[in-house]
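Batch manifest, entry 17 of 40.
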Amino acid sequence: MNQKQSSAKRAGRAVLELATLLSDGSWYTTSYLGVAAGKYLRPEIAWRTGQGNTKQGQRQYINTKLDVWLRCGRVEKRRNGNFTEWRLAKSEWVVPYLRALIEILREQAKSHYEQPVGRGRSLLERIEREQEILRLHREGFSQRQIGERLKCDHTSVFRVLKASKAQIDAGAIAPLPLYQRMAIADAPPEKEQEIAKVVVAKRLTLKETKKLVRQAIEGNEHD
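Output type: structure tokens
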């Protein structure tokens, strides 16, 4: 087991989700990350961490992990009004970390020790491609040029760029994760904000978000 695998050995699905959420470079509040990533924490760990309060344990575990990453220089922290927010300080560690963590979780799943992780390879490939699209866009390449370089359709590039800029209402607790913003970007433009509000209010999963988008598209087709 290499050094990256050793450092991730005691982590779980919650840390995987936390790193994935932060991978798009956006600012996220502590409370949002505590809910979005903490819900994947194994119940016994959350219960112990929160001294009998599972929800408090989820938030506390995620906050502790963020503090560790802050001391390592992996993330940065700021105060925004009444909220504390976090984002990546540097991105080069994320993909190797996720790759090592997914490999470990797969081994744990084989021994029935941890939750299985599905489509891990696809997850890593998507993160790498999205980061590369955003990097090339910042360097001034057009959508078609990016598509040609990365051998993907320019409409895929468009969705990633649109998702990276999409922000939900100022009253929302934090921007939606990149994958959900990408799903919402496929909805009719006049429905995007409405869908985003529902996703935040009901804490919908990516699968549920895509279903909501499909319903919005079908509703437009029947109008």
